[in-house]
């Protein structure tokens, strides 16, 4: 356990160091907030599947190739865990990813960081929190994206519609990764009420076991941007639906 925490803290330190000083102010192709649902419906097994999915995705050649193909060959990414209103935490700070070593360090930190919360589901509060992070980030980012993954509907905090509208008014894009374990129609809910902004889309995980594949495809599409031809993207998930 001590060794595990040592690795997690070392990886987190690498990410925080990478996002401080001049590196944080450089031009990047994307500033991305990965907002992960850790509400009460996400038990320990489901939580671990999500974490392993992120670690595997950031070690994948597809994600690394998408980053390298960008004009600036770099992205900024941070991990937020959220559940009920007021329960949002930037678990891993802004991290500059410009190559395999930085990507692997971020993935390791995601896989090993402790869980923050386990209660209600406030997508609205998560959007508000993530929008504030993007407003304050010290980077010249070509695109700013909130990536909401979750397995339930908004059941806590303020109404979802005004939170979404405020984020879109600020020029942000909100993408979604609904997990259809408890709510088979959650993809429709995300498409109608959660996602929005330029190039917004929802990638669907039919269950938690499917999360890793859906996540990989979504990340490749997000990093590559909407101006990339479809033939240049490898989408591993079962379903990707653009904003109507």
* Parts with pLDDT < 50 across at least 5 consecutive residues: 1-24, 227-244
The helix content is 40-55%
- CATH architecture field: 3-Layer(aba) Sandwich
Strand order of the largest sheet: 4-3-2-6-7
Structural class: alpha/beta
Spell out the CATH superfamily.
Answer: von Willebrand factor, type A domain
**What is the number of E strands?**
9
CATH fold naming: Rossmann fold
Question: What can you see in these coordinates?
Answer:
The protein is an alpha/beta fold. It has a single domain (2-242), classed as Rossmann fold (3-Layer(aba) Sandwich). 41% of the residues lie in helices and 21% in strands. It is built from eight helices and nine strands. It has helices at 2-18, 44-58, 61-68, 100-112, 123-136, 160-169, 186-194, 211-224, and strands at residues 27-28, 30-37, 75-82, 88-97, 140-141, 144-150, 173-178, 201-204, 239-242. The strands form three sheets. Strands 4-3-2-6-7 form a five-stranded mixed sheet, sandwiched between helices. Strands 1-5 form a two-stranded parallel sheet. It has a two-stranded antiparallel sheet with strand order 8-9. β6 (144-150), α6 and β7 form a beta-alpha-beta unit. α2 (44-58) packs antiparallel against α4 (100-112). The longest helix is centred in the first third of the chain and has 17 residues, at 2-18. It is globular and about 40 Å long. The model is unreliable at 1-24 and 227-244 (pLDDT under 50).
